[in-house]
Structure formats: C-alpha cells, structure tokens
What we know:
The complex is a heterodimer of chains A (1020) and B (400). Chain A is mainly beta and 1020 residues long. Helix content of chain A is 6%, strand content 52%. At the A-B interface, strand 39, strand 46, strand 51 and strand 52 of A face helix 1, strand 17 and strand 19 of B.
Amino acid sequence: MLMRIGKSTFLTTVCLLVISSGVTLFANSQTNKRNIPKDAQVHLVEALKMISKVYDTRFIYERTLLSNILVNADERYIKSNRLDILLEDLLAPHDLSYHLVSKDYYMIVKKGRVAGNSQDFYPVDTIRPRATSLQVKALITGTVTESGSSKPIEGAIVQLVQYGLISVTNAKGYFTFNEVPVSKTRVIVHCISMVSLEEEVSVQTGGNQFDFRLKPNAFNLKEVQVVARESHTGATTSTITKTAIEHLQATSLADVMQLLPGAVVKNPDFSNVNQFAVRQVGTDNTGSLGTSVIINGVPVSNNANLQMVNTATSSTLAGFSTSSGGGVDYRQISADNIESVEVIRGIPSVEYGDLTSGAVIVNTKAGVEPFQLKARVNPRITQLWAGKGFSLGKKGGTLFADVDYTKATDDQRYEYSGYSRVTGDLQYSKTLFTKKPLYTVTGFSYGMNLDEQKQDPDDYVNQEKRKAQDYGFRFNTSGKWNLKQKFARMLTYTFSVNYAIQKGFQQQLASGAIYPLSSATKDTTMAGQYLPSQYLSQVWIDGKPLNVFAKVADNFFIKSGIFNHRLLLGAEWKTDVNLGAGKTYDVNRPPKMSDGNASRPRSYKDIPALNQLSFYAEDNITATIFQRHFSFQAGLRYDNVQPNGIWNTHFGTAISPRFNFSYEVFRKFLVRAGYGTTSKAPTLAYLYPEKAYFDLVNFNYYAADPAERLVMITTKVFDTENRILKLARGNKKEVGFDWNIDRQKRLTVTAFYETVKNGYEYSTTAESIHMVPLAQYKALTTPAGQPPVLDPVPLRIDTAIATYMTPTNNRHNTNKGVEFDFEFGRIDAIRTSFVLNGAWINSKSVSDGYYFLKRQVNGSDPSKVAVYATGRGTESERASTTLRIIHNIPQLRFIVTLAIQTVWSEKNKYLGYSSTPVAYVDRGTGKMVTLSAQEQSQITAANTELYTPVSNEYYVTESWKPIWLYNLRLTKEIGKNMGFSFFANNVFNYNPLQESNRWKGQYTQRNPILFFGTEVNIKL
Amino acid sequence: MKQLFSFYLLFCMGSILVMSSCRKGYLSISEANFQVKVLYPSYFNKTGADSAVVTLTNTVTLYTSSVKADTNGIATFPGLLPGNYQVTASRHLTATLASVLTGYTEELFLNGSKSDFLVKDTGVSAVTVQLQGSKVGNLVLKEIFYTGSAPSYYSDQFYEIYNNSTDTLYADSLCIGDPGGSPGNSTSAKPYGFKSDVDNIYLKNVWMVPGSGKTYPIAPGNSIIISEDGINHKTDPLGNANSINLGVGISDFETYVPRSDNKDLDAPGVPNMISIYLASIGYDWIASVFGPSIAIFKHPNPSSLSKLVEPGSTASTQYLQVPVAYVIDAVDLVANANAVSYKRFPSSLDAGFKYCSGTYVQQSVRRKIKTTINGRKILQDTNNSTDDFEVIKPPTPKSW
C-alpha cells in the first residue's frame, strides 16, 4: 500500500519536497505589474507549484515552514509578474526569504538563514544542493506499518531491486534511501510473517515519502499464496512463501519442490536420500550436484561428503544411505522454519557459482514472530516444531529460535528401520550504526539426522545393520552495509563455517566361501591367510566435513542516459575438507568383495582440501524504452578450483558469462531470453578417489590340516586418481514471455535447452584396465604338519585383468523443455482461484566414454575386454500439468486446495545399447584394438567374450498413457491462535494398473498410494 | 452457506469420478468341457496313450483334477472353469507291456506336459500332449543338498549321483548343471522364460567330470559325490560346526572355479570338475538355496551347445541349451508347494517337483529306495520327483 505525501500522517518532523515541472516554458517576464488578486487565496505551497509550472523552476523548503501560510495568488498574477518580484511578494510578509541554489533552483528559508547550512534538514546529507546530482538523485523515506493496526513494523526489509539497495526498518518502522536515481523503480518490502509487497513507484527529484502497509501472512487473506509464483524479472524463478509451505504441510525441503511447474507429487519419504535437480526428469548425481542449495546466503556444500565405501568398485555408493557424489540431501532441511524458497530454474546471477543447473535459495525465519508450535502426524511421519522470534530490546536486535523433531518410519509394520531428525536454529538480526547502517544476521544451527536400520532379531542369516548419522553444526554471519559511497553503495559479506560429523556403518554377516586375504598395502607377493566362511563384517565410515565459505560483494549503481546500471562486484572463497578418520574396519574381517578386487582401510585425514576462489562482476541494466520496460543483466564469473594464486591453478579455471534480457514488446507483454554458462567443481569424492587394491592368488593349497595350508597372494595397488579430470560445464539457454492479461490473470511460458558436459561419474576407462602378470607356483614337497615347500620357479605366468572405477567426466546431460504457469486469478463469486502450471521436459543422459565390459568366461578373465560405443544412456520425457483449484473463505480462515495433476505422457528409452563392441582391449598386449565395421558384423552371440546380448526391450520406447492424480489440502485457522490442516495425496485412491509397452504383461501402478496426514498448530 | 456448498460440490465431483471407475453387474460364468489327447512317443506302434493319467491344474487357483485317458488316449474334463491351465500326463509301462508297444523289454515311465494354455468357455477345446520318457536303471541323482546349514552357510552343497543299474557305469564326461530362473521364493518373480520349450533344458552353469572315458567307474549300487568345496566343513575351524564332512573320502570331485585371481579354495586330494560353461559364478558354484533344480546329462561336445538369453528378461546372461534327449536325470527343486509355475524342467524329465521347508535348514532331497536286491539298493525312478524323492535331515552323503 502506497501513500503519497500529504495523505499520510508523518512520523518525521521535517520533510523536504521538491516541486518540479515538466512543461517547457520560456520566461515570460514583465516588470512591476503586480495585480495581486484580492480574493484568490491559496496555500503558499500551491502558489509555488504554480510558479514552478510557469517558470520551470524548483523550490526546496522545510515542510513545516510553509504549512498553513495562505497567500493571494492566481495564474494570471503569476504569469504577469517577474519571478523575483513574485517571490518577494509572496515570501516577505511571512518572514521568509530565498536563496538561489543553482539555475532556476531556489531554497526557501527563514529570513537570515544562510544557504548551504542545511544541517537542520533531515537527513542532512540528502539534499545538499549539488546541481549535478540533484538533477538525477532523490531521497526516499517512509514507514512500514501493519495494515489494520497501523503498528510500525520493525525489521522489515525494503529493497530497491534495480539498484541492489536495501534498508531495514527501525523500531518506528522507518526506513530511508539516499541518492536514488529519479525514475520508476520496483520496491519489494518483506518481513517475517507478512505478505511481501512488490510495487513500482515513481521516484521524483528531491524527497519522496512512501508508506507501505503489510498484511500479516495468514489464511484470512483473500489472496492467500498457496502456490509457487513465477518471477517478474531477472532469472526464471519460482518463489514459494511460508503460507504455501504451511498449506502443503511440507516435512522437508524435498516436499516443497512439488510446487514447481512440471513437478510430480510424491508422498513424503524419509527412507532414502532425497535429492533434487531442476528442469530434469529424474534426479541423478550430475543434476543434483549442479543444483545448489543456498540457505541464508550460504551454499550448503556436499563437496566434502565422503560417506562411501569403495570408489574403485562401487563409485560413491555405500550400504547405508548416502548423498556422497551427488547433491545435498533435502531430508535434512526442515521446511517449518523457512520463510521463503526461491528456485532459480533459469540463468542464475553470476553471484551464484559452483553449480550447473540452478539454485534453490532458502531464507529461514529471522525477526520477531509469536511463539508457534506445530504437530504433524501421518502414517510415516511424526513431527513437532516450535519457534519464536524475540525482540531483544531497543538496541538488542532480534533473535529467532526454533527446534524441529521428526521421526519417520518407512513402514510401520517394520520397527527396525527409521529416520529421525532434530534440528535447531538461532538467527540473530541486528542493525549496527545509524548513519551508515549495517544490517547483520548471524546464525547458528544444529542438525542431527539419523538414518538407521537396527538389526532385526529374526535376521540371523544376514545380521544386517545400517546407520547413517549426520551431526551438523553451522555458523553463518552476513551483513549488508549501506556505505553510501558512489562506488560502494552497499557492501555485503557472508561468512560461514559448517562442520559435520558423519558416521556411516554397515554390518553384514559375510557368508559363503572361505577365501584368501592379504594385508599388503603395496605391490608385493606374500603369504596370506584364509578367511572363515562366515564372519561379521563391520565397516565404519567416519567423515568430518568442514566447509568454509566467505563472500564479499560491492553493489553500486550509475546512470548513463536512460539506462540505470546496477553493478555488482564480488569475490568468494570456498574450502571443503574432510577431517574424518575415514574407512575403518578389522583388517582381518574385511567387507566382502567380488572379483580380484580387495579392500583396505583408508583415512580421510591425508585428503587435501578443495579450495575455490571466484570473482564476479555483473551489470543490471534497466531502462524505460518507448515507455516499455527493458532490463538486461550481463555478468561474468571466474572460478578457480584449487587456486595457485589468482590466475594459476592446480586444477582448472572457468569463465562463465551469463545474460538475462527482458523487454516489454507490447503493453503487459514481456519477452525474456537468457543465456549462460556454469561450472561445478568436482567434490572430494571425485578429486581424491580411493586406491584400487587387487589380491591375486599365486598358490592356493587348502589342506585338511590347517598347519599344512598355504596361500601366496600378489597384491597390486593402483592410484585411481584421474589427473586430467576437468571442470563440469553447464550451458543454459532459454526464451519466454510473461503476459499480464489483466490484474489477476498472468501467463508465463519459458522454453529451455540446457546441457551439462564433463559431468562427474565413476567409470571404467582404458586407463583403468591393467594386465597383471600372475605367477602360478607349484609345491615341490608337502611335508606333514607344515605348509608345502614351493618351487621358486613359477609353473607358468598367467595374466589377470584388473579393472577398477576411476573418476571421469563422462556424464553428458541434456535437458530441454517448455514450462508454463497460468494464473487465472480469483473468481470472487465462487471464492475460488485457479492456477495451472506444467511442463514438457525431455532429459537425456548419456556417457561420453566407452563402455568397457569384462565378461568372464567360465569364471576366468576373457582374452579380450569388450569396448562398446560411447553414447550409452537413457532418454526420459514427461509432459505434465497441475491445475490447482484454491477455494478460500477468508472470513472463516479456511482454505481448501484440490491439485489435479495430469501426466499426459511419460516416455523412457535406452540409448546407444549395442550387442557388438567397437573395440576390445587385448589381454596379451593390454592395448585397445579398434574393430572395423566388417569385424564388428562378424561377432555373433557365440562369442561370449565380445558379444553382449541386449534384449529387444532395450530398443522399445516405454510410453505410458495419461494418468490423473488428485491431491487435496485443507487448512483452517480457528481464531488467530490455532490452526488445523489436513492433506490427502491421491485422495480418490485412483491407482489403475497400466500395462508396460516395453515389458508386455507387466502392470504398474504409477500413482503414489493414497496417503494422508494432519497437522495442528498453535500460536501464542 | 454458499461456501460450504461449493466445497460439497467439489467433493461430489470427486465422488462421481470415483464411482465411474467402478463397474456394475455380475458376470455369469459358464463352464467348459475340455479334452486332452495323450500321444505315445513316435517310436511306439500305437498313437493314443491309453490309460495315461492326465492331471489338469489351474495355474491361478491351483485347482487340480486327474482323469484316466480312454483307449484312444483321450481324457475328458467336464465342467471346467475357464482360465489358464497346465496339464501333465504320465504312463507307466511294465516291461511286458513295453515289449508289446516298443519291442524292448524294459520298464518305462513316460511323461508329457503342456503349460500355460487357455481354457475358454465357448465350444469344446482340446490340447495334445506328447509323452516322452527316458529309460530307467541308469545313473540317477540320489541326493541333492542345496539348503545349506545354519545360520547361512552354503559352501557344503553337494550332489550325489548313483548307479541304479546292474552294470558298472563311468562318470567320465558326465555333466551336471543348474538352470536359471526363479525357484518361486518370491511371487513377484517371473517364471522361467524358457518354460514353453519342452524339448530342451537351459542351464546356467555346467560342470563335467574329468577322465578319459573309463577313469571314474561307478559300480552298481555305488555313487559319486560332487561338492562345492571338498573339505570337512564340520571340523574345519574356518568352516561351520553345524555342517557336514565332505572331505577326502567322501567328495569325489569339487567344483573348483578356475578364476583368474585364483581365489576359490582348492582342496588337495579332491579332483576338480571341468568347467564347461559358467554363466553366473562367483568364488564358488552356488546353487540356489531356495531350490536349484539339477540335471545330469552326457553330450559328445557340451561346450558346442547353443547359448541363449532368457526370453522376456533384461539380463544378458546366456544359458546353455541341452536337448532333452541327452538328459540322464533331472530333478525340479523349487521354493515351496505353491511354486508349481516355477518348474524349470519339462514334465517329460520330471513330472513333479520337490521342495524343502526353508533355507539353511540342512535338509536334502533324497531318492526313495524302491527295493533292495542282494544288498544293492534299487532307487525309485518314475521321472516324478514328487513321488520319487523324500526330504531328509541331516544330509546323508554316501550313506543312508
């Protein structure tokens, strides 16, 4: 709500007003004509305004000085007299005088006051008469109050997005901006528990007073926000507010993502890691790693997560749940203390780095809010949350504190596995200094996440036990400092330290064969031991990731011609290191391995840190061209991974230009286009893989008498590090339009084409296949009660083929599609609003590397390792829409939403699968030999080394019929202090069996099962 | 209450959606008359297998009905519920009867089957079953121990092959193998993709007894044991105290996997089997502890047999195709009594199937003794393991 000067009651005692006029006029002066009209009495201010119009002059004055002064003046009188005479006539009788500040610019003061000595003006530094700057700069002051009660709101953030300026209201709700360019500008006002306000205001030269009234964000609003809103400017972004999250009854950040266009609803699930990738069908490591999660300005880093068991054989996987090698686990992020989430799907600002696809920006609650308690129960999850924002007195700032407790079971019938989470946050906000205010937020949070499978007492066969524990401590502090310098209008900084104790544990009763084991950790041949056929294998993975993040940015703006430039310059430092004890186990009871591969313990303490240094610069250009909005964002980011100085590097550097453009081609019809490149550093899991160990047996003599047994083992150790690993690079392109059909109806459509090349993954490469000569010995004699005596001359030399996985840049993802969001607005007659969004997304994920397959022949290594063509992968496609019918009765504080999700088509196909190889690695030479087309055609199924049967179904595109899903959500506030919510996913339990067209005769229920839950919340 | 009205409207709309997915009315089920024609093998001088016992099983309800065929070999099943069925037919011929029909005076057990066909309610439908059979009094599987020992020990699996004839037979070049497919321990698994082929069996792993032809004789009433690891599992400290002794003197052969890393145990004193085809192998030949099904056969060049992938499976595993004619004995071992559709051998080889009570229960399946002549036990071999085998605990390698 915006109020112009004169209509509102002022809290400030003094205000400055500049009256200006745009009418061209030439001086029409006549001498001594006077003709003071006797009966035309007007306010002096009005008279000055008339003079301004006629003579194109400006006046500046203390407001109280001129109030209630009546003069006799009319247009004829003004037009017929000279300016100096007019002023003399009008001012002198009231003990006023004027100073000429500059050409046609006058300051009205009490008689005897000296011009320039303007210390009594408030604020003093704003309107100091400086001819050049005064033409283009203005002062904005104002208040933010709560609508209804008119109580001033403290801590509300007023943002001038175009200039990157922010101001935080003081205890009286007062805010101020200095030296703001004179033009139209967009103001965003937001505050905890309030509905954000976004308005375009016209800033005039001199002083401006804007008063904003915020509505409490509650369900008694007619236009309550329960869906994601698409951004108006800049990168394609969906914004999801607190009310939407509350109405959704989200248990973690993962649930929130279902509001995005093209997302499909899943039931809340804590049984596995929840990762997320923007604009992609299905989530993989490349997509989730490339989608950065930024909480309160700090990227949540998964770069030092090493919760994996053996990279050489099983990449970044583990027997317990782990997000190592991929993106952040969203289960760990509670949704209840979130004030808003912005999901940047388009081209993110260069401010955001170490990502390829997009960013999820989470702002948690900070500020004053009444105590709130939420309790949530559904068949899988029990959750309690409590939070309160305190005011710590006039000078003390504010503190928000909250705790969350979540207990989830995968299946209530099975009590041994479950997930529990305890999180606690403290966010302290304080404004320092008054002249050049520094708005600071300092937070500390703690998170405990336990994903455990206890041992089922009935499971004596496997004795399985799994644990993934994560105890995280995060400290962050950030500030926005209004330095008010020309080239440093606002300085922002962020610093954070995140430390976590991650404990992975897997236990299994290793059963099966009695097999040989060596304890050698370097290349050698020595006697080994036989392991029992059955033992309890216990492996611990202790990781202690430490992430440090620091960022400084400078924000200022300049105006050149009609263009406003908001410039952003910043630097960033990231360190990710793991200080954990690593993989430990009893070396005599190792985890069971297959093939010749062996396992050895590994400490994480020797793993170097991952450091990243980045700089960025961005120009946000806005203008009004032909009375239409124009905006252009051009940025450049420089990332140096493992820097050795600023420009030198131990790993790699990337330069990422990014652009976002929009222009209103027709009235209310905005076209948008964006292009940008991105880069993501490898995580420690890809930078510093584990060594590959091989235990190969030279002599295996398992006599009945244990004393007569002997096993000789050759151990081979390979460094699996990929020294030519490159940075993963993303490339994003999009075009779209926003059509504001009327005040309520709005259509947003975006088409995108995005690629990620050099995506990280573990694969077998030509370099990770080694031919190992293996001497076979024979016993010369077999003395009783003693191990056999070996002939030192080998019986023969065999060749074993050692293959392991190494980090590569093989993953190549391509995502293209069209997404749209259509707000129909609210039809008041039926108290219902409609929002339709959806997307068609096609995601292709292939490997750019050859596919190596060692096909065992009768248990032995083959003479040739088959090499299949590059480009193996999958292509998935989905077209889906969700119509949200929102029915709300503000008077009853009641809202019910029916989301009708339609998956119009869903397709999946395999790419690049072939039975015949394009080359092979020869066991004798270890060399890769390319096969000619003719040689390839001669390979038949009889060649079990080179021919891999691929079933016909791999060439069939799976294509599903349309399916509908109905989800119901209901929220009712009982009075102001209590609320009740209910949700039911798949409310009609519509779950038809659909036949696969790839696997004839196989039927699938594609919809999630009927799932419901309820929530009660209390505000005190 | 306009607002409430619109809320109800929303629900009503929803309810209509739900209702519309239900269908009213009842189906009247008609019954079918069904005929099975049973044919003798082609070398018989008669076509219709008179007096053959024909058993029809509904694969969904497991309803079973047995009828004796008439003189033309036709068995009629009146009043059948339409649905999916499978049929097995068997005919026991005494030596006298066999000599009339074939000219050979030898007792014969003939079996035949047809799986997964549809009985419709319209008209009279019929299927034809061709009987096949192997001669009795040859090498037979005497005992198979596959369930393992508590808590989860399976290195003690063994297979005992018995000379049920009156002549000395040679184990040389005798092959043993297990098929792929699920034994039916999980009902979500698909039955074996090769099931419809009644002329061949498809084996995952095949081993062969070494020898030049007459190296490993088996005297009448004697047997050989092929074990996974030829060690004394019970006393070996690295073994399992609940297990059994399969060391030197008991095991005749062990299935040592010739791995390139050489990690499988090699017990001195127990000769190793020759690996013919190992499609799915780790450190050991581990047959399914849920029910592996086992076949023994002799073929002049087993490695030359065709290898095929399982129809309807994504796995690239290829299976060795062994024609039924080369099979000496086969026993279908599945997970439980209801796992009839998970049989992996045609009924001509095994008209029935056998199962144990669980995994790691130390139960083995052992062929019943038909009679004992001069101390030599003659084992029952009707090519129907349901009748011929018994489940025993503990296993009795080389003993009873």
